[in-house]
Each structure stands twice: as structure tokens, then as C-alpha cells.
Specification:
4-stranded mixed sheet, Translation Initiation Factor IF3, alpha/beta, 352 residues, Dihydrodipicolinate Reductase, domain 2, UDP-n-acetylglucosamine1-carboxyvinyl-transferase, Chain, 3 domains
């Protein structure tokens, strides 16, 4: 009986959080490379797997008919040995409470991009929660960039999910590709327009309006054109709010903020606008979070991808390290951590 050799990934490297786990399992699922992740989330106050991490791994295991060990809350080691990617049709995935739907999507999308057939999923959890991209950022910023790489998918938000109850509902529909195209985003170019969405649930409409007005005021002060910000009021399971804005030029840059108890709506709107302005004034084509998000996709794509980002973060550098280890590609980073910079790589040209 053949012994499966597992590529070992150090989960304590760099930022040492859940991103290493998500990227490792996602790329393992795509390539079929068996992996063993050790020291999972060792740099966190509550190390090891959390319930939301189990959900992502279980779904990818189902999608790839993988053999998995160590799949329990608190586990610091996981072995993941996938087979060929299948497909998921009309599958319901409930993360539980306010676990981030966006972070779950980070884990699932690479494998779904190379599935046997189109996939449809109903995701239940948090749409707008701390320490993760808001669902509008995924739908309005990430989606547009991945579509340029050839991956077409659709995100429909049925209900918002805020902390602590979650219960947000998102429908994800994906169409597979044979191969991803390289991405080149080196300059933002002329700003054509700014759009956004300010939302609240189980709160008065004026909360979302004040968030939007505060963002609009700061953008006006900095000389930016008047943004088109949609106001959304919904019936969520618990009170919550947030705002995401994005500017469109030759590239796309986003900024966002989440409401919290005791945090004035004006502060929420101003935070989102400040993030957007900071990214725009860096001269880069992409904001810091998109630099982080695109790393695995650049590694999988054909040809040479090259992007400029508003800030090189520890998350980005960690994602680069993991992607290099699993895909065997080599990234070139120009710029220091904390500064704007350029990231390029000749992708492996993975084909389904």
C-alpha cells in the first residue's frame, strides 16, 4: 500500500491565523496536493480550529472526496488529502451564529472555480462582521476582478447577518473555468465614479442614511466626486449596520466599516471613506485587502500577473508564503511591509 507524502504547512508562520488554514486547504483542494497543517492558529488567544474553520474544511472535503483527520474544535493539526474536484448543487451550508460567510467563500471559491459543473450554494452566517471582508466587498470588488481573470460567479444577498446572531443568507452560484487568465493592475487610472451601499438591520433608516452622508461629506472635503450610495434597510435577526464604498477606474478600490453598539453612524461612514481615500492616495491600483485576496488566484493563473497595492500587509506576505509552498511558484515583492508596493508572479497555469 502506497504511503501518501503530505506537504507540511506551518500554521504559526507570519500572521499565524486562520488565513493560513483557508489558503492551504483551498489550494490543496484545487491541485490535489495532500497537506498537513501544524500549529494551527498558534498565535491566537484561542489556538486551534474554531467551528467556522470546520465548516470550510468539511465542505471542501465533500467537494473533493477528501480524506481528512484532526477535524475537531481546538485541533492544532489537520491532514487533508483530496481527490478530483466534483461539484455542489443546491447545497445548504450553515456556519452557525455570525461566522463569516466571506471567509468561508475565500476557502471555497478557488475549488469551485475548477469544479466539474456549475455549483449553487446557500450560505448562512454573518455577512457583515468584524475581522472579515463585508459581503458587499466580495460582491462589488473581488467578484469584478475575478471575472476579469475568467471566473464568473454570482452573489445574491437574501438577508444580512450581523453579530451576534448572524443568520444572514447568501446564494452563491459559480460557473467553472478551465484556466484562469493573468491579472495586471498596475495603475488605477482616472476615477470614473464612486458607488456604495450603506445598510442597517433592525435599526431606523436614518442610521444607514447618516453613515452614507458622513462618507459623502468626507469624500467631498477631499475633492472626490459625489458617490452614488444605495440605502438598504432590512429585517435581520439582530441589529447591525455597515457601509462599503468602491471607486471604479482602470481598476477598483474599496473601503468599508462595520457598525457596533455605541459607535455613532457618522464614525462608521467616515471610517469607510478614510480607508478608501487612503488607498486611492497611495497611487496603487488595489487596496491592501484585495492584494491579500488575489494572491492564490495569481499563483493559479497562467502567465505573469502583476499588481500594485496600497499597503503590503503581514496577511499578504503570509498568503504569498503559503501559496509558494503549495503551488511551487515564486512571487516578487517590491516594497516593505506597511508601505505601498508591487507584487508579481508567473502563475503555474493550473488547468482543470
Amino acid at each position: 500500500m502506497a504511503v501518501i507524502r503530505l506537504k507540511v504547512i506551518d500554521g504559526s508562520f507570519g500572521e499565524g491565523g486562520g488565513q493560513i488554514l483557508r489558503t492551504s486547504v483551498a489550494l490543496s483542494a484545487v491541485t490535489g496536493e495532500p497537506i498537513k497543517i501544524v500549529k494551527i492558529r498558534e498565535n491566537r488567544p484561542n489556538p486551534g480550529l474554531r467551528p467556522q474553520h470546520l465548516t470550510g474544511i468539511k465542505v471542501l472535503a465533500d467537494l473533493t472526496r477528501a480524506k481528512v483527520s484532526g477535524l475537531r474544535v481546538g485541533s492544532r493539526e489537520v491532514e487533508f488529502s483530496p481527490n478530483r474536484i466534483g461539484f455542489l448543487d443546491d447545497v445548504k451550508i450553515d456556519i452557525g451564529t455570525a461566522g463569516s460567510i466571506s471567509l468561508l467563500m475565500q476557502s471555497l471559491l478557488p475549488a469551485l472555480a475548477f469544479s466539474e459543473e456549475p455549483c449553487s450554494l446557500k450560505l448562512i452566517g454573518g455577512t457583515d462582521v468584524k475581522w472579515s471582508p463585508p459581503i458587499d466587498y466580495m460582491r462589488e470588488v473581488l467578484l469584478r476582478l475575478l471575472m476579469e481573470m475568467g471566473f464568473n460567479f454570482k452573489i445574491d444577498i437574501k438577508r444580512r447577518g450581523y453579530y451576534p446572531k448572524g443568520g444572514g443568507i447568501v446564494y452563491l452560484r459559480t460557473n467553472p473555468v478551465e484556466e484562469l487568465k493573468e491579472i495586471k493592475k498596475e495603475k488605477f487610472g482616472t476615477l470614473k465614479r464612486i458607488e456604495g451601499r450603506s445598510h442597517c438591520g433592525r435599526l431606523p433608516r436614518h442610521v444607514a442614511e447618516r453613515q452614507a452622508n458622513s462618507a459623502r461629506d468626507l469624500l467631498s472635503e477631499r475633492g472626490y466626486p459625489d458617490p452614488e450610495i444605495e440605502i438598504e434597510v432590512s429585517d435581520s435577526l439582530c441589529p447591525g449596520s455597515g457601509i462599503t464604498i468602491w471607486g471604479i477606474g482602470e481598476s477598483i478600490i474599496g473601503g468599508d466599516s462595520i457598525g457596533e453598539r455605541g459607535k455613532r453612524a457618522e464614525i462608521v461612514g467616515k471610517e469607510a471613506a478614510k480607508k478608501f481615500v487612503s488607498a486611492m492616495e497611495s497611487g496603487a491600483a488595489l487596496d491592501e485587502h484585495m492584494g491579500d485576496n488575489l494572491i492564490p488566484w495569481m499563483g493559479l493563473a497562467r502567465g505573469k500577473s502583476r499588481i500594485t497595492v496600497s499597503r503590503i500587509t503581514k496577511h499578504t506576505l503570509t498568503n504569498i508564503k503559503v501559496t509558494e509552498e503549495i503551488l511551487g511558484v515564486e512571487f516578487k515583492v517590491v516594497g516593505k511591509e506597511g508601505d505601498a508596493g508591487t507584487i508579481e508572479v508567473k502563475g503555474m497555469g493550473f488547468k482543470a
